[in-house]
Amino acid sequence: MKSYIYVAILMIIGLTTTTAHAELQKNRYCIRFNATYDDNSNGEDYLKNDGLVAVPGVPYSITRGLDVVATGELDLNGCTDILKLTVDNTYKIHITYQINGADGRTVKFLSQNATSWKYGTVYSYYTTTKIYKIATSDGGPATIYRNMPNTVHGRLLPIARLMLERADILNWPTGVDIYYAIDNPTLCNPIWGHFLSGHSSDNLKKICYSTDTQKTAFAHETGHAIAHMHGGPNRGDYAGDTYLGARCIGNSYCHAPTTHKFFTREWVGAAASEGFAHFIAAATFNWRSTASGVFTYYKNNVYTTDFSGPTPASTPIKVGRYHSFELNGIAYNGNPNTLPTYSNLYCQPPTIFKHLGSEGDWLFFFWGLWTGGGESRFNIAEIKEVWANTPATEKAIDVHCVRRDIPGSEHGWTCFEAPWTYYSPSVEFGWRYDDGQWRLGFTHDEIIPSIKSIRGKGYYALANAALIQLGPEKKSFFEDTARRARVVY
Ligand SMILES: [Zn+2]
């Protein structure tokens, strides 16, 4: 008897609820972000289908006047079901350009006038909609699509989402947030373009970014942030092609006067750091199961060569912006002569000093390490483990370098491990008569100061760390890949 009464009460509640729903409009909102890029549709690109993209995890709020009708995060389809809407009312859909990813990872795009990284306002946008639709006859919701405008914030959000989805593969550790300040003259020097701003070891990484319409650079900068999470390749100076008399002068394909480019000659730490950031971008947009990835480079006037023939061209070829480099050059069983070992072919470091290389060669090295080698291949956490466990020796931090010329042979660099900081390019260190007595020193007036640079971690120390951390098989694959990519110096 008791249970009959209970059922009757439930039926009344059920009827009341149904009646209430019939008076309200049930709608489904779907937000789409514009993801049109200049460098789209390459390789096995995960963001190949340009146009309008759903981005899950983005916070929204819906208001009518001062009333907040609903708040939450967009679901896996970039949508949300909303009740309580009434016909002929205008609603504001407010989108915050932030993604709450899995495992405590958050991405925020700060507004242009934010003055603080941690507490700055997040960029947001709203659109208004007048409700006129009702639920469909079968009881399903009426779906309203709203497309966000094609702004720099909107274009970048789908890339950030892709990187969050692949966070475990890319070794973006849990609980680490990345904030991006975009076109923000207070937090970022606009002259510098895109760069990683925060090098601290805390759980917040900061990236400066300026208006752009391509996607590789964004993933590249995020790659620098990932390198700084638990110690991947991230340190070295950009000066390997700069000094007067260095061999690279005159060879514009090895030298970029005010910046670094894909094949310019840099200190090994800088070349590895940039190559790793390129590699994270490559791992974002390509499949790991095939070695035939594509990397689209975002700077202009870069030089490359045709590596497909039996021997590479004797002179590099100048190509324009968004040039796509095939990543399968480091594939196994290839002819070593056809491998993309650019520095070694065109911008060879001086014989005495080898700690110079190009970021392009390091990209090919990391790609080969990640995709090849069967059981021995490295995941990204292992690559970072090798770097993190390689001791930063004194030489890796500071080297004193001066120009070195050998008449008729080469112009370039050499580096002294001795602590002195001056050197004559033409006369050796030795005894000289000075101020009434013999002194040990330079015998010539022409004494030029050496330049103190950060070299970066050297190859042999890295290979040793690979052995200690990961064992002999992985070490041997590390060495094999390094030899093929010609980053052994
Ligand atoms: Zn970079």
How is this structure best described in words?
- This protein has 489 residues and is an alpha+beta fold.
- The chain folds into two domains: 28-229, no CATH class; 231-489, no CATH class.
- It is 26% helix and 25% strand.
- It contains eleven helices and 26 strands.
- The strands form nine sheets. It has a five-stranded mixed β-sheet with strand order 7-8-11-13-12, with helices on one face. Strands 1, 2, 5 and 10 form a four-stranded mixed β-sheet that branches.
- β3 (59-64) and β4 (67-73) form a beta hairpin.
- α4 packs across α5 (268-285) and α8 (380-388) packs across α10 (459-470).
- It is elongated.
- The chain binds zinc ion.
Task: Give me some keywords for this one.
alpha+beta, 26% helix, four-stranded mixed beta sheet, 489 residues, single chain, binds zinc ion, 2 domains, disordered N terminus
Reconstruct the topology from this structure.
Elements lengths: L1 H22 L1 E10 L17 E2 L5 E6 L2 E7 L5 E7 L4 E7 L1 E3 L5 E5 L13 E7 L11 E6 L4 H14 L1 H4 L6 E6 L12 E2 L7 E6 L6 H12 L38 E2 H18 L8 E3 L5 E3 L12 E3 L4 E3 L15 H5 L9 E2 L1 H13 L8 H9 L5 H4 L1 E8 L3 E7 L5 E2 L5 E6 L2 E6 L5 E2 L1 E3 L5 H12 L1 H14 L4
Parallel strand pairs: 1-10, 8-11, 11-13
Antiparallel strand pairs: 1-2, 1-5, 3-4, 3-6, 6-9, 7-8, 12-13, 14-19, 15-18, 16-17, 20-21, 20-26, 22-25, 23-24
Helix pairs in contact: 4-5, 5-7, 7-11, 8-10, 10-11
Bound molecules: zinc ion.
The site of zinc ion has 4 residues, from helix 4 and helix 5.
